[in-house]
Amino acid sequence: MPTRSDRGLRSRWLAVIVLSAAQVMIVLDQNIVTIALPAIREDLAFSQADLVWTVNAYVIPFGGLLLLAGRLGDLISRKQVFLAGLALFVAASVAAALADGQGVLLAARFVQGIGGAVTTAGLLGMIVTIFPEPEHQGKAIGVYGFASAGGGALGSVVGGVLTESLGWESIFYVNVPIGLAVAVLAWRLLPNDRGVGLKAGADIIGAALITSGIMLAVYTLVETERYGWNSPRTIGLGLAAAVLIAGFFRRQSKAAAPLIPLRILRSRNVAGANLAQALMVGAAFGFMFFTALYLQQVLGFTPLAAGLAFLPAPVVIATVSMALAPRLLARFGAKPLVLTGLSLMVIGFLLFAQMRADGSYAVDVLPGMLTAPLGFGLAMPALMSLGMSDSRPEDAGVTSGLFNTAQQVGGAVGLAVLSTVVASRTDGLLAQGHSTAEALTGGYRIGYTVAAVFAAAGLLIAVTVLKVRKAESAEPELERVA
User: Closest by alpha carbon to 347, among 364, 327, 368?
Assistant: First the structure.
């Protein structure tokens, strides 16, 4: 007969699964659109230049609001903020599915980004609070790690199946039953927490500075493909974003109740994990984006076939992050997993960089499709553990928001840089008289090579900055950046 302790443990695991399901839905929605872009373009008469805003309209508010949303969870209630964000995300998904024009779709995607930020900002903080015990926390982070990493890869699979069978609108409608189920279960399973209170200070000035700074930075980056990196517009907006972000950190050093207590950033593990993750995710965004295009535009795959071609990635990530990584984390600690994972990602991207215009899935895609996700599945749970390692209970929401912000900004920066490099190389090859397939493939090869450089830079940071001991014996300690 189950004891009260057994029932409590089971309830906590169900809560983690519900939170991870929410993360899958949010992350999946970032990538599910990629496969559907050609269908959206045809149906709503998007130009090629404007089509990218179907993605960017979501990414900009998502990246900009994570820190504020995480802090609000600490001040008010992580459960209440989570449920409010979930409701907004589901409502915006319905609006996107019903969109009959470009403006409506882009506005709905913008609101989706807001809802996604509010929903996910404090998820990791809630999970480490639900499972403070090291023996369970590693497994819980592994489940959440799959939700974060596998959800992105799964988005391409689901997007292909839904777009071809039910139309592009279905990629937004699918959020409704998932979101409602998550909301009902979360209401019942998540503990009723109470934040420290708004009187403790939401730092409105700091929130305005960092939110506007990050949103402007992401907007500037995603527009570089249109205006170029050296244009006065890009340089001017980039400097303005830098001034806003610098003003935020100056504000944090003086504010009585800062949005981000700077003690969080003095931890070598937290700082190193966030930087390494940003580079890793920037490389992974390019992998998802360019592989989907290579499969459809060069190899001639249908959206359904292209989506199914990504299936090995979530399978590998699920196996590694939920079954293998927690055991390795407990035995060897986080740093060895990060180093191994990032090394495998470098190898995977270099394998992709060998692709050919007359290539095949088995030779040119599958080896990298197995190797890079294997590395991602190992590294992501370990980085999550490090990213939350020195978080105090009252700061768990904002620390979680910081980790997610690094992920989103890293993805935006990575995709902007890689897209610019790929477009420049492709245009150069076309001007030299190469066929469209050869030019596209040449561009993608350069993109994957730069992605490998990103992963290698993350590996270098992990080697030089991270200072960890074995997870099962380590106590949280604040190691200051030298």
Answer: 368
